[in-house]
Amino acid sequence: MNRLALFLATSTLAAASAIAAPPQFDAKRLSDHVRILGSDAYEGRGVATRAETKTVNYLVAQFRAAGLRPGGDLVRGKRLWTQAVPLLKSNFVGEPKVSLMLAGSKTLPLVQREQIALRSPMNGSKAVNIAGAPLVFVGYGVTAPERGWDDFKDVDVKGKILVLLINDPDFEGPADADFGGKAMTYYGRWTYKYEEAARRGAAGVMLVHETAPAAYGWNTVKNSNTNTMFDIVRDNPPASHTGFESWIQRDAAQAIFAAAGLDFDKAKADARRKDFRPIDLKATLDASATATTSVITSHNVAGMLRGKTRPNETLIYSAHWDHLGIGQPDAKGDRNYNGAVDNGTGLAQLIAQARAFGRAPRTDRSILFLAVTAEEKGLLGSEYYGTHPLYPLGTTVGMLNTDSMGVHGSSRDFSISGSAKLGLLDDLIEEAAKRGRRFTPDPHPEAGHFYRSDHFTLAKVGVPAISFDSGNDLVNGGTARGEELAKDYVTRMYHQPADEWQSNWDFSGIVADAQLLHALGLRLANSREWPNWSQDSEFRAARDKTAVMRR
Fold first, then answer.
1. pLDDT values of the chain reduced to their tens digit, one per residue, 551 residues
2. Which of 459, 415, 318, 340 is nearest to 45 (CA)?
3. How far is CA 199 from CA 138, 159, 225, in A?
4. For the purposes of burial, counting CB atoms within 10 Å of the CB of 132, is it exposed (0-12), middle (13-18) or buried (19 or more)?
5. Strand pairing of 74-75 and 465-469?
6. 361-400 per-residue burial string, b: 16 or more CB within 10 A, e: under 16
7. Kind of pairing between the strands at 279-305 and 365-372
8. Is the separation of the CB atoms in 43 and 322 below 8 Å?
9. Alpha carbons 77 and 63: distance in angstroms, whole number
10. What's the first-to-final CA gap in the chain, in angstroms?
11. Three-class SS state of 70
């Protein structure tokens, strides 16, 4: 073999080897992204604050450095790095005043963040003015004709305050209809309960907080619901929101029931029966507050790698960039809700994928790297994308979402949020098996995680979508340690200022997760596969409506 032939052969082998070699994900680089984005300098990455500009600029710089092209809004024939997301913003001026007149003419004040967590109104109003609104207990507040279930019966609740329970009727034991047992359905989610109350013309809602069925403590509730509120801009806001959306402490609920001569626990048990009827609590509510409202523009960040042969087919990697911003101080006086795990880790993984794909040969299909806004305010950035997609949903292969990844080393398993069945999961299980990892179903389906991450809004419009979970069977400590650490995070850090980067975190697990998610993305982006939902999935029909686009 002459020198030229030898050189060409060696070069060909080297190129083939380079193509076949898996990308290298660096633990320190991942840690650095989390440290930076979760630092006090980023002020908790609040939506519509100066921290949003800083966060968006950081993500754009990282996407540009990775070799991506702008994939956002098309303006005068040119793509931007962002997608504009108009949002209604609402914020209380001062503290709201809320009090109850209980049976027996006893007054019970409800102090914001102590007994009640009242959200600034999202129904288009700039004030809360309620006088003498009757309280009625409506059980779980569910209307589910397919299950033969109606908590409202023929009772008119217009103008009333609905007191109701979080989660599903069968969460705490057998009910007269199957709501999934411990696996929360959408009927158990607080968003559904607010929506149903608005549909029925109620004056407001008081959700009774209990840690087990809510899946988080009161600190999470008050921190998430008493700061600035946002919603997508709606044509008719009162159709989706009452003017009084709140949570109350269990102790307050027990006092209301006791004053009416009722036992709270018995009423809860009765609410698990189909023949349950709403109960007059013989109490009224007075509330007053003033709010400032405006329509602001937030931003999804979008970077694109255009496919070489089928650029009109798109795979999405996603993560939300926002957290709670600056809020009420904790016991240590810390007001910065850094959001290092939630969701600095997901963003770090997203940036790492952009870098890995950006430095590799182009895939056949396009890949969109999407950092969405306002997840913490109700999945609003992803909902806007679902209704205003930058690229057709019918030719979107799927969404791989990362939200709050593991920082305590590698795990033997992995999971996804919820118990959905779809081809995308089957593919992920296959790729994981090649790497010696197994799939473990969501260990806490009662927490309703499926409805709490951005993949859900894409699922609603039919796109196969999963939110990846790192797994709890840790190589160092097994499932026992994994469960203990997860519980500690929810109790001590989740939506609290304590969610800060720590130098002793072990990012080797996120490295392994990134390798797995990269392998799945590479497989999908270079194939003609179109994953779908299972035949019995509630999302299958929406996906099948666009089948002609995938022929």
1. 444 443 333 333 333 333 446 788 999 999 999 999 999 999 999 999 999 999 999 999 999 999 999 999 999 999 999 999 999 999 999 999 999 999 989 999 999 999 999 999 999 999 999 999 999 999 999 999 999 999 999 999 999 999 999 999 999 989 999 998 888 999 999 999 999 999 999 999 999 999 999 999 999 999 999 999 999 999 999 999 999 999 999 999 999 999 999 999 999 999 999 999 999 999 999 999 999 999 999 999 999 999 999 999 999 999 999 999 999 999 999 999 999 999 999 999 999 999 999 999 999 999 999 999 999 999 999 999 999 999 999 999 999 999 999 999 999 999 999 988 999 999 999 999 999 999 999 988 888 889 999 999 999 999 999 999 999 999 999 999 999 999 999 999 999 999 999 999 999 999 999 999 999 999 999 999 999 999 999 999 999 999 999 98
2. 340
3. 14, 12, 21
4. exposed
5. unpaired
6. ebbebbbbbbbbbbbbbbbbbbbbbbeebbbebbbbbbbb
7. antiparallel
8. no
9. 21
10. 48
11. strand
Domains of the chain: total: 2
* Residue that finishes a domain, picked among 260, 291, 322: 291
Q: What is the DSSP letter of 150?
A: E
List all residues 6 or more positions away from 78 whose beta carbon is below 8 Å from its beta carbon: 70
Q: Is residue 81 part of a domain?
A: no
Which domain CATH number covers 269?
A: 3.50.30.30
Handedness of CA 457, 462, 463, 464 (dihedral sign): positive
CB atoms within 10 A of CB 6: 10
Structure tokens at 137: 């207990």
Using CA atoms, how far residue 134 sits from 81, 131, 158, 285, in Å, is 50, 9, 10, 7
- As a dihedral over the C-alpha atoms of residue 536, residue 540, residue 542, residue 543, rounded to 10 degrees, the angle is -170
Domain range for residue 136? Answer: 90-291
Question: Which DSSP string do the residues of 17-50 spell out, in sequence order?
Answer: HHHHSPPPPPHHHHHHHHHHHTSGGGGGG-TTSH
Omega of the bond leading into 343 within 30 degrees of 0 (cis): yes
170 shares a domain with 250? yes
Q: In which residue are the tokens 């996906």 written? A: 543
- The tokens 């705490």 sit on which residue? 172
Q: Of 291, 315, 330, which residue constitutes the final position of a domain?
A: 291
Show the tokens assigned to 541.
Answer: 């029909």
